Each structure stands twice: as structure tokens, then as C-alpha cells.
Prior knowledge:
The complex is a heterodimer of chains A (271) and B (534).
Chain A: H1 6-28, H2 36-58, H3 68-90, H4 98-129, H5 140-162, H6 166-180, H7 185-189, H8 194-207, H9 215-243, H10 245-270
Helix pairs in contact in A: 1-3, 2-3, 2-10, 3-4, 4-9, 4-10, 5-6, 5-9, 8-9
Chain B: H1 3-10, H2 13-16, H3 29-36, E1 37-42, E2 47-49, E3 57-63, E4 66-69, H4 89-97, H5 108-114, H6 117-120, H7 130-136, E5 139-142, E6 147-148, H8 150-155, E7 162-165, E8 169-175, H9 176-185, H10 187-208, H11 217-226, E9 228-233, H12 237-244, E10 257-259, E11 267-282, E12 285-292, E13 297-298, H13 300-309, E14 318-331, H14 332-338, H15 359-367, E15 376-380, H16 389-397, E16 410-411, E17 414-416, E18 437-439, E19 446-448, H17 458-462, E20 469-472, E21 490-493, H18 506-510, E22 516-519, H19 522-532
Antiparallel strand pairs in B: 1-8, 2-7, 3-6, 3-8, 4-5, 4-7, 9-14, 10-14, 11-12, 11-13, 11-14, 15-17, 15-22, 16-17, 18-19, 20-21
Helix pairs in contact in B: 3-9, 9-10, 15-19
Amino acid sequence: MRAMSRRAAGLWIVAAAGIVALGAWRATWRASTIDPDFLTGWILAAMVAALAIYGVRRRLPMLPLGRASVWLSVHVVVGVAAIGAYAIHVGTLWPEGAADRALALLFLAVIASGVAGHVLQAILPARLARSGPELIYERIPTEVAKLRAAAEDALVEAAGAAGHETLSSYYAQTLAWYFERPRFALSHVFGGHSAEAWERQRLAAVEKLLSADERPHLAALAELCRHKRAVDAQYALQTLLRAWTFVHVPAATAFLAMAAWHTLIIHVYAG
Amino acid sequence: MSDADVDALMERPEIAAIKAENFPPGIPLRGLFRNDARIVSLAPGAIAVREGDYGNSAFLVLDGTLRVILPPGLPREELGRQAPRTRGILETIARAWNRPAHPEARDLAGRAARLKPEDAARSFMFLQDIPRVLDGNRTVTLQAGDIFGELAALGRVPRSATVFAEGAARLLEMRWQGLRELRRFDPGWKRRIDENYRRNALLNHLQAHPLFAALDGETLASIAEKVKFKTYGDADWHVALKRSKGSGQENAADEPIIAAEGSRPDGIYLVRSGFARLSHAVGGGRRTVTYLGVGDQFGLAETYAAWKGGGEVRLSQSLSALGHVDVLRVPAHVLEKHVFPGLRDAPAALATERRIEEDGLVDWMVDERWINGTQTMLIDLDRCVRCDDCVRACASTHDGNPRFVRHGPVSDHWMVANACMHCQDPVCMIGCPTGAIHRHEVGGVVVINDDTCIGCGTCAASCPYDNIRLVEISDMHGAPVIDEAGKPVRKATKCDLCVGQPGGPACVRACPQDALRRTGGKDLLVHGTESAGR
């Protein structure tokens, strides 16, 4: 994990102070002309708008709107502060009523996926950098296809050299599955060694059945398996780095729509 | 140039002395003038070259008198410099809104309008009130037969001075490619260009160096007479580099030695252009201390120590050429007479506090010549979340076409992405037949004029970093553009550092993790040391 920057530390302090002040005001409120639910509701709405605007900024990279990293720092801090503002506004994290619960559920989904994404973004890049060849995500299927073709070439050469198809048959029964597409995603995500153990066991099982002419080709297959493992790790980690946004963005969009509806209804019935 | 112009030119003594038979059949002398030169006429006050501009041509004075304005030169406003034009916000939004629907689409009708015949005629800036300019500035006169502008043209550096016509004048303007061939095949022109080049380079360089800044003109001139001008390595260094990329063959042991470790200090070495490696022996190998670029010096501390203390002072490091390097050597006796008596403190030796385990990245930066970049796209893979926001930002500012690939060589957790580095020595400019790839007048960013690019691929083949891509273009409706031979029309494309876009490079601005930076020179080594030290 990276050390917190001075900018982020400053933002966290300001946000924490703001939420504590809002909470203290709400707790000590007795009676005044300001309705605390309206005030805290509008503060929360403003925070949600500030969070949503980051998505707009990402879609307008051609405009000189400042560095996206500053926007992201603000987005993260305001997002976490919004939990406090939400709790102050609602009084609980799990309100009564189906509509309010649906709103709360979406809010929690957005926050949880956002926090998860933030943590993943802090942890996974360094693991990716050390997990083998750096690959562009969209090119990984092509890379796997290249490895599969190289493995099949090795089998043809092995069959030619040995005069029988022991290795080819074995490949078709076992290793073909491995070279078909990225495998062992969970193991790679959690830093396990399942793929390595699987490869070792499969390659060792057939080694004793091979002639001296075939063994160099098995060594070539082992090298391709090692490469495939690194590609699979890239695929698993890069998929995870993208996957959280498939929860965060739709949940945020639904939450925005429902929050707008909630604001409208509250004002209609309050009036 | 027309045949009549070439005939007239061939009569001039400077040209008549050239032996046409020395030129190979593929590069005939007449063809060289016809294709690479033109005659330009200047009215009084017209500026032929402007200080600070990047230019690809040199000039031979045919008639008339011109003046070179010596430093400090004319004020910026008087040279007609304007603030660089940057698109406004509304214009940027409108451009993004009207972006072509097809990749690499070109507005061919607009192109015809942009290349109106009248634009081809060269227009000149003019100096007002010539007598006042002459009174207020030190100048040198150029007359018929003199050559100027070769320093910037051959060295791919900015013009060092402004030259204007005192009266009506005619010049032969020669593109640097033609000048290079003249220098290559005619010994007389080679001698002349080199003498000029060395004399001007030397004076400019000495004047700019802090060690000599306090000296008067007379002393400087006497030092200049004794300075040696040396060139090491191959001018086509990029060819060898491209061949050896990734092979690990590039190292200090194979490089031409400029000054050897263990030898007596005999003066200082000033790097005029190119790069040199500073290294010293450790065990059976060599450690790279750092590299020296334009303006850096070597040997000052040792030469000073030898003068001050006498005794057995030896060079503790070697200086070797990285590719191609021009070096000035100022002899020890000159420094002892003119410079050392004025120094208050002993100069510090060039050394490194780096640990051996931190060498890997520095070696990589130097061996792979990333140090050549001034705007290298360096991505910290420990921070990069592979979101490709940088690529999308690039595409959004270039009509939907990204101008770099977020991929490239990696060392430790640093990636040098395949984005134009806007090199100090942009070898991509060598050989461009139309001059389409050139230095932008603002900041020296290397850009490609899409209208004049013929898609020959010379620049892409020359770039040792594979940062230029050829694309097949289409019209605004997505139909492929075909030439007369029925082949698809190609254009060279690369990063233009968002020149003219508001806010600078969009890729840097768009990175949400601060993982991407554009950096160059010694800053690259700083990143390497930072990373290894953690």
C-alpha cells in the first residue's frame, strides 16, 4: 500500500472535521427555524453531486479541468465522508420502509464497491508489476492463443521425433484445458500457487512415460506453462481491477436516480 | 529550383569549385540543388533566421549584406514572437463534439484549402528601424559567399542568433539533408562547414558556460583559439542502438573513450552535443556514475586539484561516448591562466552516493538511451491501475485517435511507454524527404505536418524507440484514401504533446493515480534512484 500524500491527508482532516461538526450540530439541535433533516439532506445531496461530477470529469479529458488525481482524492474523501453525512441524516444505516431501504441498499453498495475499488487500486498495481510480462488487457486472449499455438507446435515436433503420440494424447486429455483460456483466477487473485502445483503434477505424471527424444519437448511445454501462468495472473488481477466498477458505476447511477426521486417526494409532501 | 536557377548557381565560384564527379549517381550535384535548395530574396530588414527558432536549413549569401545580432540579442516582441496559440475551451468542446466518426479520418477538402499556392511563398518577419537596431546591438556582417545557419541545421538545435538583411539580399537556402550530402561528398565544403561549425559552436558554447561567464570577450577569444573540438562515435548511432536493443550488448566497455580513468587530467571536457557516460572500474566490471549531456563538464575537479596541490592526481573515472558526442577540450594550461585563479572554492568531483543495487535502473536509462528524451512517458507500474484513462484522454484530444500505446519496455516497476519522447537528438527528423517532421517553434516539440507527410515511413524506421506509427487514412465518410497507384495513403503519427491544446498533455492530466509523468534528462535517473532506494 502506498503512503498517504500530504494532499490526501489534508482532505481527510477537513472532511473529518466537517462531519464531526455536522454531527455535533445535529446532536445538540433543539429547536430553530432550520429543519435538521432538510439541512443534512441537502448537505448529503451536495456531497452526492460532488461525487457524481468525477464521472463527468473523466468523460471530458480534453478540457483543462485540473489533474484527475486531485479529483479522485476529493472523490474518495467525500465518498467516505458521505457515510457520516448519511448516518447523521437518516439516524441509522438501515432505515424503515421499502423505498428508504432500497435507497440505503444502493448507497451501501456504492460505498462498499468504492472502498473495495480503492483498496484494490492501492494493492494490485504493485502485484501486477511483479507478476510477469506487462500486457494490455485486451491483448491477453491473443497472447493465450499464441501460447496455445506454440504448445501445439511443440507436440507436433515431439510426435515427429518420437514416432508416437504419447505426449499429444496426454496434452489433449489434460493440458489442452489449461491452454484453452485463462485459468486459476481465484488462486492468482489471492496469491496462491494452485496453477504452479497443477502444472507440476501434470507434467511430472507424464515425464516417466516419455522417451529421451520427447523430454526436451516436455521441457518446452513446461516453459510455456510457466509463461501461461504469468499471463493468467495478469488476466486475473487486471479483471479484478476492472470488475469493481461494474458494481460501483451502475449502483451509483441507480442511487442518483433514486436519491433525486426521494428529494422530490420529500419536498412535495413537506410542502 | 528551376534548371535555369541551377545553371546560374553552378557558375558561382563557391559552387563551381565542387567536383560533381565526387557525387554518386543517386545523389547528383545538380539534383541536390534542384531538390534540396531554393533561392530566396530578402528585402531590407527581413529576418532570415530568428534566435530560438528550430530550423532545418542553412544559407549561403549570394548577394547583399546581412547582419548577425550577437547576444544579448533583440527583445522578444521586436522579433515578432507571440504567445503560442492555444485552443479555447469552446473551440475544444466544439472540436470534440464534431469529431470524425471514423478512425484516422482526414478532411481532404480542408487540406486543399490549407495548402493554397500563395502559402507556399515564404513570408518574412521584418525589423523596423534598422539604424536603431544596428546602434543598439553588437552585430557581425555577412557578405556574399558566407554561410550561416548550419549550426542549427546540422546540430538539430535552436538558432543561436538572429540574422537579418541590411539591404536587399539573395540567399541560397539549403535543407540540412542537402547540406549533409555536400559535406559528405565535397572535401572543400566539408572543411568550410566544419570550420564554421566548430568556430561558431565553440564561441557560443563557451559564452554560455558558467565557468567562463565572468571572462571578457578578449580572454574568451584567446581561450577559444586553444580549445580543441572533438567528435566521438557514429552520427548514425540510432541504427546501432536499434540493432542492439534488448541484447544487452550496449555497455561502457564498447564505447569510444574520451578520457580514461587513471590518466593525468589534461583539462576539462565540455559536452557540446550528444551524450557521454561517466563510469569507473569496480572489480572486473564498470559502474555507470551518471551521463553527461549538453552543457555538462568533466575533469574540472581533478585538473584544479592537480594545479592546486600538484602531485600525482589521476582521473578517477572514465568518460566515454554514448552514440555520438561533440566535445570541447579546454587545456589545463588555459584554465590555470584564465579560470582557476578566479575560483573561490575547489570544484566538487562528480560522484555518486548510489548503492550498487540501485545501478540497474540507471544503467537501463543510459544503455537504452531513454536519456535522449525530454518528455519521456514514464509510468510507475506500482501506481498504474491499467484503466487506460490516459489513452482515452489522448484519443479525445486527437479526433478519436490515440497517439501512443500504453505499453513498452519495463525495468523494475517503471515502464517507458511507446510515446514520442521529443528527443534532444531527434533522429526521426533525419531523412524526412518533405520536412514534414520538424521541431515546433514553441518549445521545440517534435511534430508532424500531416498535410506534407507522404507516409514514406523514414521517420518511423529511424526512431530507435518505435514511437512513430504509420496509419492508413480515410475520408470523413470512412472510405479509405487511395493514391494514384491504388495503394492506401499512409501518414506518420505520434504524440505531439498536445501542443495547442489547453492544459498541456492530456495523458498526464487524466491519470487518476499520478502514475504517469512526462520527464527527461537527469530527472529520469532521479526516478530510478528513488525507486531502488525504497
